[in-house]
Amino acid sequence: MPLPFFILLAIAIGAAGAAVSVVVRFWDRILGWAQTGFLPWVDKHLPEFSGDARRAFMSLHGVVAEVRRTIRDAWRALRTRLVAQIVEFSRDVDSRWVVTTISWAIASLSPDEQQLVKYQDARIVPIEDLPPEVLRRWMEQNESTIRFDLTEARDKEFMSMGMEE
Question: Which long-range contacts (CB under 8 A, 24 or more apart) does 97-101 make?
Fold first, then answer.
């Protein structure tokens, strides 16, 4: 597979992850709330829907579990080639911010030719599009260059969601 495919896969995983991250990340809490609050309320006030409500949560649980497995497996596949990915936010002139993404990937999985390749992409981002953590560090600590290790953050995120398996 060509390496750009893996970069596109990483972007797709990120976009899909953002779309379902709230439910996937908080699913255990949602189930706890359903068990202690919502389902007892349905049992008391709408007993004719009690079975349907439980089946709905069980069906959703199956979907969320499958999404978690799919995300975990895709991340593992990507990590066989993606060694590290860093994003750096740097304050430029006129309050512009330059966001540089640096990725190191193995160009081939062949044991004979495991060449490490560096990819770098930079773009200008308006201040209103900066992540809250970047703004906070800039305002509170006067940092003008802020770096995040995206691979480490994603690895920790999957472990915290019980996705390390």
Answer: 97/124, 97/125, 97/126, 97/127, 97/130, 97/134, 98/122, 98/123, 98/124, 98/125, 99/123, 99/124, 99/125
pTM for the model stands at 0.61
pLDDT digits (tens, 9 = 90+) for 106-122: 887 666 777 888 999 99
- How do residues 72-110 score in pLDDT, each as one tens digit? 888 888 888 888 999 999 998 777 899 999 999 888 766
